[in-house]
Each structure stands twice: as structure tokens, then as C-alpha cells.
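Reagents: none. Just compute today. Peptidase C1A papain C-terminal domain-containing protein.
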Amino acid sequence: AAATRASAAAAAAKKQTGVNIDGFCDVVPLSGNLTVHAILKALRKQPVAIGLNVKPLQLYGGGIATIRDCPPASSDKIKAINHAAVLVGWGVDSKSGRPYFIMKNSYGADWGENGYARLDMGFDEATGMGACALGTESNYPRTDDRACADGSTTKWAEKRNGDVYLMPDNVVVLPNGGGIVTPSRFVIFGYDCAGLLKILAIAAFFLCAYFLFSECLHCLCGRDDDEYYDAEEGKITVRPRRGKPGALLQSDDRTEIYGSSSSDR
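Predicted 3D structure written out:
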């Protein structure tokens, strides 16, 4: 009976599909030949997700796209890309001898070369960016405890106190859907002061809110004092609304009526 259960469990295990993902591998970015070689080594194991500028490829119909045909969207490495795709292989053009990456897009089989495109492996030496900003961001999942290929760094996510941290950089990912990350540590003399900074930020927020409320209340309620002119005394004084005399603002015996012009005197 035990042998039967063991064989049944083994058969069920064989039918199971899928892999375990243990973080991801980040390819060294914008490093010229190092990035190209790191992507090639990773492609020997599995496809590689990339970020790229897809706008010049909207009407792509075939051929090898070069950096001249498909430049980055911006010189800024964050704004240089605006789309995600997958590299699935590489090759060499038989006529020109130009090496290229094979990219699978998400536009369907009617786009490009049956849904694929060829991107030149060349790159700009000044920026390290390749065709369509290739090399700016490239990564692939780390599956079943496999080691990352040479030229790639292991990274993973951790959840602590409701926040998600990208490790080993130890940066917290803001839950705004924009992929923005901010430093989660602020170290002074070996002490992590991130908690203190959060408290100070909250205190500053409430202090600003208090002053804003006070100003709004003052504008809505007006002044607490009333000005009046005493014709007999020839004075302008301020009397608080509580009924007590205020400070003397002006004393001029030549003035008969407050606010009158010289022609009225």
C-alpha cells in the first residue's frame, strides 16, 4: 500500500507544471560590451525582459533595427524607455555579418517579422545604450534556485511592516504603480535614522496644517479690534471688541474728520 501511494505521488509530481521564482537577475546596465555579453549569457538559460523605446518601431516591418533607426526616447536613462518586451535569442545576418538580438513584442503576429524584431547589438559608446535604448534595463526571473548568469546580479523582494523592499539595495517600493523607489535607510554614525525622519516629517506636516488653519481662521473671522475716530479728542484709537480701550494710533489736533481731504477742512 505504501509503495502504491509513493508511486501515485511520483506520478502526480510529474504532471505538475510550473516553476518556483526566487527573485530575479538584474543585468548590468549601460556598460557596453559587458551588457551585451551578460545578455547573451542569460539568453543561454532563458528569455530576458527588456525596456526599450518602441515609438520608432510602431511601423516596423522587418530588418535589423539599429541605434540610428531607433534611438533612445531621451538622454535620461529613466525616460529613455517606454515599453517592455522579451529577448528570446540572437543571430548574425548572413549578408552583412551584423549580429542582432531577437525580440518578441506583444503586438501580435501581424507586426514586424511575425511578431518579432531584430535589434542590432551595437551601442553608443558615450551612453552605453543600444538600439531602441537596449541595455538600459534588462532582467529575468530566478527560477528553482538557479544562479544568475555571469554579469547579472541577484535581487529579490521582502515584505516588512506592510512595505515591500527591493533587496539587496534595501529600497522601499512606493505603492503608486509608478515603479518609483526611495531610499529606506538614512544612516548617521552607523545608526539607521529612517524612523526618526518619518516622525519629523509627520510633525512638520501637522505643524504646517496648524499654521494654515490659523491663517484661514483669521481671514474668515476678521480683526479682533475696531478702529474709531474721536472728533472731540482728535484721536484715532483702537478699541478691542471686549470693551477695553486700545493703543493710540494717531493724534492730530488739525484733523477734524477722519479721512477728509484738505479741501474739506
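The chain has three domains: 19-153, 193-221, 225-264.
Action item: order primers for follow-up constructs.
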